[in-house]
Amino acid sequence: MLRLVAVILIWVVLVGGLSLFVNRERNEAAAVYAPPKQAAGDYWLEVTPTFSVTSDPFGLQVGDESSGGLVIRLQNREVLRIYDDLQEGLPIEVKPLERLVVGENEFFIKAQPAEADIANANALRLRLFHGTDLLLDETFWSEPSNPIIATTRIRIAEPGDTPRDGS
Q: Are residues 140 and 80 located together in one domain of the fold?
């Protein structure tokens, strides 16, 4: 008899704890979604490759889009895509840069070097400006015979916020 009571008690604790956990997750998921606030101001991006960019000759071509070239995404949406031959060392500017939000922003960069440059280690410089202020300056490198594939993040502060130590 005592075993039966212990088994029932264990089942009640386990099933009750599981149901409380599942209901708590549902209540958290039902919270109201607030879209991120767009960053206000004159933000722009400058991209400078040290190599010529071309489309991937072995990549999949769907409609007018081919793989390769230079692709930069912000928050998983394209802000720049170039398939044409792009000369090395010439900066490309994206003005104005839209889709920046207050808080965390993530850039995804993919660049396919041209066949003449594929045997070298290549670099791509990404700079983000707010007006004339430099906010981000990063250089991404590739190994010889590989494309550049990288991500970087930047936090955009609310206007009027002062940075605190450690953040």
A: yes
The tokens for 8 are 């029932």
3-state per-residue secondary structure call for the chain: CHHHHHHHHHHHHHHHHHHHHHHHHHHHHCCCCCCCCECCCCEEEEEEECCCECECCCCCEECCEECECEEEEECCEEEEEECCCECCCCCEEECCCCCCECEEEEEEEEECECCCCCCCCEEEEEEEEECCEEEEEEEEEECCCCCEEEEEEEEECCCCCCCCCCC
Bridge pairing between strands 148-156 and 65-66: unpaired
CA–CA dist 1, 4 (Å, integer) = 5
**Is the domain of 11 the same as that of 78?**
no
Higher pLDDT among residues 105 and 31, named by residue: 105
pLDDT digits (tens, 9 = 90+) for 20-51: 887 776 655 555 667 788 888 889 999 999 98
Other beta carbons within 10 angstroms of residue 58's beta carbon come to: 7
Look at the pTM and tell me if it is higher than 0.85.
no
Same domain as 89, residue 18? no
